[in-house]
Design a protein that fits this description.
Length: 132
């Protein structure tokens, strides 16, 4: 039906809850009875095993959050880290960091690097600073 909102007619929306890993990446959406509605899998830098599950036209629950809880744009395949976009396919941000880095920390001088190339230990929710 053209112009449909995507919701099934005459149904009550189901409340779903996120199950996340230690980095904040959603691993599953579950209902109040702990039944899994959808599962997600990522590699170390956040490449989704089934990226079509993030497409809002995918049959099933809508989910806008991907790797480390960042907003995920299924059409571009990029994750939104508030200040800039992250491309999990190359493990780098697609634009320079506005922070120049620190001379005593050579890893910080690469303005495109993501979490000093250590995605199992750190996350960067802002696009500017990593946190452990």
């Amino acid at each position: 039906m053209s112009g449909s909102s995507g919701a099934a007619p005459n149904t009550t929306p189901e409340t779903l809850f996120y199950l996340k890993d230690m980095l904040g990446s959603p691993l599953a959406l579950v209902n109040q009875d702990s039944e899994v509605a959808l599962r997600y899998h990522y590699d170390e830098f956040g490449i989704a095993e089934d990226p079509e599950k993030f497409d809002l036209n995918y049959p099933g629950p809508d989910n806008l959050f991907g790797y480390t809880g960042l907003g995920y744009d299924a059409s571009s395949g990029l994750s939104y880290a508030r200040a800039r976009y992250f491309d999990s396919g190359i493990g780098r941000f697609v634009s320079e960091d506005t922070y120049p880095g620190e001379l005593n920390n050579p890893q910080s001088l690469n303005l495109y690097t993501y979490v000093y190339n250590n995605p199992l230990k750190f996350v960067d929710p802002s696009g500017h600073n990593l946190v452990s």
